[in-house]
Specification:
The structure holds 2 protein chains of 2 kinds.
Chain A: E1 12-13, E2 16-17, H1 26-40, H2 43-57, E3 63-65, H3 67-73, E4 76-81, H4 91-104, E5 109-114, H5 118-130, E6 133-139, H6 140-145, H7 147-155, E7 159-163, H8 170-183, E8 188-190, H9 200-208, H10 210-223, E9 230-234, H11 239-245, E10 255-263, H12 274-277, E11 279-283, E12 286-290, H13 315-322, E13 326-332, H14 333-347, H15 353-360, E14 372-377, H16 385-392
Parallel strand pairs in A: 4-14, 5-6, 5-8, 6-7, 9-10, 9-14, 10-13
Antiparallel strand pairs in A: 1-2, 3-4, 11-12
Helix pairs in contact in A: 2-4, 4-5, 4-9, 5-7, 9-11, 10-11, 14-15
Chain B: E1 10-16, H1 24-34, E2 39-43, H2 54-66, H3 70-79, E3 86-89, H4 92-98, H5 100-110, E4 114-116, H6 122-135, E5 142-144, H7 150-159, E6 165-168, H8 182-194, E7 200-203, H9 209-218, E8 221-224, H10 226-233, H11 237-243
Parallel strand pairs in B: 1-2, 1-8, 2-3, 3-4, 5-6, 6-7, 7-8
Helix pairs in contact in B: 3-5, 10-11
Classes of the chains: A alpha/beta, B alpha/beta.
Amino acid sequence: MKTAIQPDEMGFYGEFGGAFVPELLRPNIEELTRAFRTAQDDKSFQADYLSLLKDYVGRPTPLYYSSKLSDTHGCAIYLKREDLNHTGAHKINNTIGQILLAKSMGKQTIVAETGAGQHGVATATTCALMDMECIVFMGEVDMARQAPNVQRMEFLGAKVIPAKSGSRTLKDATNEAIRFWINHPDAYYLIGSVVGPHPYPEMVAYFQSIISEEIQSQLKEKTGSSSPTKVIACVGGGSNAAGAFYHFYENEDVELIAVEAAGKGLNSGESAATSILGTPGVLHGSMTLLMQDAYGQVTEPYSISAGLDYPGIGPLHAHSIQTGRTKSISVSDEQALSAAKNLSRNEGILPALESAHALAALEQIELSPSDIVVVNLSGRGDKDLSTYLQHSSK
Amino acid sequence: MNTFKKSHKQLSIFVTAGYPNLESLPEQLSLLEAKGVDFVEVGIPFSDPMADGPTIQKTSDIALKNGMNLDRLFDQLREYNSNLPVVLMGYLNPVLAYGIDRFLSLCKEVGVSSVILPDMSLEIYERFYQTTFHEYEITPCFLITPSTSTERIATIAKTCRNSFVYLVSSNATTGENISFGQDQKKRFERIRSACGETPLFMGFGIDSKEKVDFVHEVCDGAIIGSAYLKALEHGNEITFLESLQTHEQA
């Protein structure tokens, strides 16, 4: 595996990224950076990682040609089926990579944050597999909203600790996980998205890059060309998008479309469209686009999808959107719900609410018959069934 | 000339601006000055204070709900006219949102002695903000920990020669319980010597006269935050300050 987009030596993608961490975390960050660089060049690490992805996670995930979506939109549409990974989402690609790394560093405790619980479940799963102690911080509000995932994590042996500070959601769970790491430098902090201080954005993107690597070879097999014309992925922090875009960043012929959650509308005050509503700022250790008030206090985003309501965005996305390489569009709750229903009824695939945002983007962009579009179906929708039922009865 | 002295057994107290009430800061400064505190660290409240323990987080939340912001903070500092040195401490984001030039020019105008932004590392400072700090003649203060290398301490001390070096007592967020022993004493002495002429203050987890006395044996001053805010919450801040007071005043 080769890294396609690299931040500078301080972790900056243009003006975004870096490691804005207190001195207390400096040794942890340095230790992690060294271990990650070693792992990147370590053939046996790579072999272990790929073998687990194949035999345990079930990779490669299919690249499915959707004839119905293709007919509807008048071009070729493929779905990258990350929903078929073990635990039901792309998150496990990263937890396998990072927990292998933690093992190589001699760590015994993994601490993670989770919003909807998908990263938490993937972490708890991988910790069970690799005999690691697992501590997951989750906002008290999210624990109530996503109770089945809390039970899943606990059944897998993880300790789930409610984050009771601030707005008691993902950003606060992240603060608590960072505080835990400050107080327990021997633990390994496993960030679930392409956010946080350098080297996390680079590292999470690297472990998710298997998605675009597979898209290339699968598309080559199916069409004779390894390049689609468009890749579409939803973005909260942006880990599935980073993975789906990764090997295409340097190929300007491939249009990269990041889909954010507009929530109830961009101007409704209840939105999570960070790249449109955000301004540059520092949160969780990196400079990025951030939803904040005039005094730099971070505001609570809203989306019907618990995986997209993060007030920031990965710094590589902030940079790529700002430079025009990635196009960002936003999709409302209603549009995402409708796309989820259509895919369920027409293809028999129940997508996660997050992934439904990427699907809904097909309605918003201009498509021509020569287009070959890949939509990254980042996760399955079982966790969202009650939301779907609630809204379809309306 | 440096406001912060070498070898003077100083005491500093941290208060969160806007806590417990929006207008509390001037009366707090007045009380702390009357009780002989050497300088005050004034916390700028932030929605996501990742290096702070529960006590400071809570005061930060309350201060924000009270409506504290940098405009009001500078107004209060401008109105409180005294010789008590003030150090502003906070996270980088509110400062950046306010505008680093505007922030530093107001710091200079109201006579702020130094600025501590824990998530602005030395490297980030040198790459992005040093020129602006120099322009307004404000020297920031940087944190070090007991595990920071001697070489790095010396570099930081050189950068902070017109302010001070802030030694975090242990690898922990603010307000965590700590204890001191002989081996720490040796380590702290090594750190102090690496600081050269730059004053060294210790904070995080200092909550009693006993700990202040220990700190004074190995550093130039002690900084108390969470313990004072807890006393303030319960209305016994005066008793708490008096309990610290038998230390030799410089």
